[in-house]
Amino acid sequence: MFDEGFSRTDANARHTSLNSLAVGESGIVVALDCPSPELRNKLLVMGIVAGTIVKLDRIAPLGDPITVQILGFSLSLRRNEAECVRVIPRQ
Amino acid sequence: MSAQEISATVPKQYIVALAGNPNSGKTTLFNSLTGLKYKVANYPGVTVEKKQGKLELADDIQVVLMDLPGTYSLSSLSIDERIATDILLNQSPSDPAPNAVIVVIDSTNLERNLYLVTQLIDCGLPLLLALNMIDLAEKRSIVIHRELLSRALDVPVVTVAASKGRGIEELRLELEKLLRNPKTSSRQFAWLPRECPYRSSAEKIGGEIARENHFLPRRSGLFLGSGLLSESLSVADQHVTSQLHIAREALNKQGIDSHTFEATARYQWIHSVLQRAKVEHPEGSGHSRLDLITTHRVWGSCIFVLLMAFIFQSIFLWAALPMDLLSRAFEWLGQRVGALLPSGQLQSLVVDGIIAGVGSVLVFVPQIAVLFFFLGLLEDSGYLARAAFLMDKLLRKFGLQGRSFIPLLSSFACAIPGILSTRTIPSWADRMATIMVAPLMSCSARIPVYTLLIAACVPRKFIGGFLSLQGLTLCALYFLGISGACLVARTLKSTMLKGKPALFVMEMPPFRLPSLRVVLRETWDSVWAFLRNASTIILSCSIVLWFLASYPRLPDDFPGSRVQASYAGRIGTFIEPAIRPLGFNWEIGVSILSSFAAREVFVSSLATVYNLNDDGDSRSLVTVLEQKKQRGEFTLATALSLLAFYVFACQCISTLAVSRRETGSWKWTVIMFSYMTALAYCASFIVYQGGRLLFG
Question: Structure pTM?
């Protein structure tokens, strides 16, 4: 169970960032690769942990921020914040 | 009466804390439980609101219900979280640890809401779960087996729909049961496997702290240890800090990032709990059509602009009648009291000083109330989060962020709640920038000044038959303040407050029908707080000003202007050369000086100055100004210059006091006052000189 956490060095080519999903597309979180620990901690508490399904839901009228569906609620975050969430797109 | 009978009649007092995530309906539940009978205060040293209500559970059980700040987790990252954590771990200097905790859960959002529950379980306090908004969960076909959930968490669970009063009685019964037989959950640290190296490190550090602090609840040492390891709590103790460093290094060597580990493990455990409780959560977010429209590219922006416009129009439309009634009431009161008192200095003090002065400000309370009411509606419906979402990119251009929108919007009512609500901005630089520009938003205290000057000097014309010129002028003033704020925020963020960009991450709560009862009560709280805080200042300023305007006593046959010969007139005349380029005479100068305490005092002091000046009956100030305008003593250019002055000037002692407290330094307070005064002087100068060129 302890090795189920995130790994920063996972170089799986299928990984993409949450930011590059299209509206309506969803993915499974595999890693958080945040430059700032504050951002990482906040995302973790809000439920963005390995294995969670996130769906890009909406883009603000000005193009940023975005909202994602996660654990049945809406989370709003900026594009540069979504950038560090590594996901595997789901069909 | 025997001793036994006496002890039976003396109820035992318990403290119960109400904890929960933001947007979990905590406030609504608090109101249902206390029947809107509560007191609002502040936690000492900080200005986080502290609500306490009384609850009679049984003849022998009296409960003080303490509303903790809404938090997603227990850590000390934000002030709100620190307060909640300190109280729960019995480390608060002012509040004892609660006997039990009611955790309010949003049933439509069970998984994330349970994160806080896992931490509360770890604290080792008796818990009671209130699954709130169960009606909405049912509507979305979310199945929650309450008994199974209760067994999985080993915590009593009650389903509640606080907004409909459903389940409140059962909640009370369960709470009574829990207080009579307090029991903590056996699932403490169930998320943290025994053999895990993280656990042994946490236990070691927790034990270290628990040895020093005997007040900690049973076994919460481990909670502290795990929180400290994941850097979500902080500790000043040097010895513990070095222990922590060693433990973190050791975990890192084993490939465990402590924070990621804690969060992942807690969510994994929550997942298994939900499986055991057979919770069925159908996919789909359950957002309504309204939800989609309000954040839509085109419609969302249109609705936003229309909504804001509607609110500002309403402030004037809805408040007009009560304002008129209040103003007549004060006139009537002045006449009545004037007739009762023998003419002389006392009569003059009461009628011209107190009643006229205080009355001309209190008249604007209806507008303030309407504004607070709308702010409450926006907040409780969940629209404020949409506003932050819509506005973030725009505000970021000026060095602020979407979250600054709520404090700035509140500042349109009053900069004080605005500045206080910047606590929700986690970044220091963003928070500081928001605080510094919040007083540039035209607050309700400026409304008396704005409306007086607009009513007296801007023609009652309609452009295109429906756009009122007066309304447009008002809009322009708000816009002027906002533009100034953008400029200042941007300048600050690129100079004194330069740094890395802050976080935005924010929950977007679903739209909910706000409870009218709750919003009205909150409006009342805000208005009452405004009256309580402002009335002393206004009353004392009215009296001081009356004194300055009425003394020294002059002989009846005194030649020339009596007001100009008074102390007030002398001060005004003294500063007149400095304010003449702004189009202000000594009378306006006196009123500006006296309104340093609070902007709205400008109206009452001008009323006092003019009432005494014309030594007549208390006429409406608007009429006096209109007459002066006709006589050319008060021009449109002067009025516009005054308006520009009040858009920017920091004429509010309370704002400065709050800034001092919130920024923790005189430096920022001095900067705020100086830049605002400088801005006001420049703006006034430009407007007056420009106006003279345009209107002659």
Answer: 0.80
